[in-house]
Amino acid sequence: MDRFSSTTLFPDTLAGTRDDLTEQLTIIWEQIKAPLIVPLLRIAVFLCLLMSILLFIERVYMGIVITLVKLFGRKSDKRYKWESLKDDVEIGNSCYPMVLVQIPMYNEKEVYQLSIGAACGLSWPSDRIIIQVLDDSTDPIIKNLVSMECQRWASKGIDIRYEIRDNRNGYKAGALKEGLKHPYVKQCDYVAIFDADFQPEPDFLWRTIPFLVHNPQLGLVQARWKFVNADECLMTRMQEMSLDYHFTVEQEVGSSTYAFFGFNGTAGVWRIAALEEAGGWKDRTTVEDMDLAVRASLKGWKFLYLSALKVKNELPSTFKAYRYQQHRWSCGPANLFRKMFMEIIRNKVNSSCNRCYVNFITA
How many helices (H) and strands (E) in the chain? Predict the structure, then answer.
């Protein structure tokens, strides 16, 4: 077969030696750089500057609000009605709402005993609470250990249910969604959610449920995270500093101004009616907690953040775990913003949710 000539492979203007080719490419680049590349770069720089200005304005706004809140702000029990639930001699424990406690798990060999023990240790009438362990573990040894731990607490009179699935579709969101489908959940009014490494204090429900009982507009009560391993290494210390700003400023400002703030995915109590009205759990992004919070806010539900109520948990102490967490937190909000942009724009029920634009963009 005859070889292709250089004039066949290249235009006449690019034919010649390698030096000539480089020179010709340089000339072409100089010709297209000004009319094409430079305007695109200018647009990119303008967008970056605009986002930086928005971020700066948000930080200034939050700084002013949090200062006013600390100086003059009302406490949670002043902004929302709170009264301790009292016994009723005539109807007994029926005066207390039924509470479901969900603990999603996945191969949690190190912490499963602590999390189950903390949930079973919650102070609440024993006949008005159901502990639901949602185990998606793939290791049969760990599944057996978790099952035995549930049986041990059941033998003590705790109403604890060990639930497994045939697949891991939807991951955490899928597990929580499947957990709400069981018949015994229909009798429950509220659901408290704790990840496997979270250990709530015994009085957690007594401090959260009354807000939901006495304020029908509230759909969520969110507690603060307390990091027990913050001093383990430099990486955990840096994470604590970053997350402390989120809890001390961002969540507090959102709650104090009756505006939108995101659900952190754990250490919170949902009104099941609000969760169902919002469409339930969806696994379309890696931030299923924020997805649910936005949809509930669009329906008009209000959220309350309790900074004084802290739930112990652990920070990722290895770079691999930290990288996975940050990737999920970084990509998820952007993907969710893309999916819900038009829905937020069209929303007329809760215009204050439009503030989540900044939260999505700067997440």
Answer: 14, 7
Cβ atoms of residues 231 and 317 within 8 Å: no
Say what the pTM is: 0.81
| CB 224 within 8 Å of CB 247 | yes
The per-residue pLDDT for 4 is 44
pLDDT, tens digit (0-9, with 9 covering 90-100), for 251-288: 888 888 877 788 989 999 999 999 999 999 998 888 89
**Long-range Cβ contact pairs of 160-166 (< 8 A, separation 24 or more):** 160/116, 160/120, 160/130, 160/131, 160/132, 160/133, 161/130, 161/131, 161/132, 161/133, 162/133, 162/135, 163/132, 163/133, 163/134, 163/135, 164/135, 164/136, 165/136
Nearest-angstrom CA–CA distance, 8 and 6: 5
Closest CA to 206 of 276, 257, 269: 269
**Dihedral of alpha carbons 173, 177, 180, 182, sign:** negative
Q: What is the pLDDT of residue 222?
A: 95
Closest CA to 79 of 362, 303, 316: 303
DSSP 109: T
Residue 158 region by backbone torsions, left for phi larger than 0, else alpha for psi between -120 and 50, else beta: beta
Distances (CA, A) of 274 to 76, 209, 210, 279, 338: 20, 14, 16, 9, 24
User: Which of 103-107, 181-185, 350-354 shows the lowest per-residue confidence on average (mean pLDDT)?
Assistant: 350-354
Q: Which architecture does CATH list for 95-327?
A: Alpha-Beta Complex (3.90)
The domain spans of the chain are: 40-73, 95-327
Tokens 């997350």, residue?
Answer: 243
Residues designated as active site: 136, 289
Looking at every residue in the chain, the average pLDDT score rounds to 85
